[in-house]
Amino acid sequence: MTINYELIIYWSEPDQSCIVEVPELYGCMADGETYEDAVANAKLVIEERIGTARELGRPVPEAKGRLTYA
Beta-carbon neighbour count of residue 28 at 10 Å? Predict the structure, then answer.
């Protein structure tokens, strides 16, 4: 699956990990020890979120790009 959602990635000093937020998918976040781990984990969370929405017959938000959610 190609992931086209915007990812906001930052280092969390208190957590000592990279955090990834997916603003277009409300509440969708992931973390990892490295940037690469965090992005890989975000991809898994996005795929699970989309799969669950489809199973429940809920709409899946389209990826719209940079800051269009604001």
Answer: 19
Please work out, in degrees rounded to the nearest 5, the angle formed at the alpha carbon of residue 54 by the alpha carbons of 35 and 70: 55
4 three-state secondary structure: coil
Q: Is 16 left (phi over 0), alpha (psi -120 to 50) or beta?
A: left
CA distance 67 to 64: 8
pTM, to two decimals: 0.84
Residue 9 is encoded by which pair of tokens?
């990635």
Mean pLDDT computed over 34-42:
96
Q: What is the pLDDT of residues 59-69, one digit of tens each?
A: 998 888 776 55
Q: Does 58 score more than 80 pLDDT?
A: yes
Amino acid at 19: I
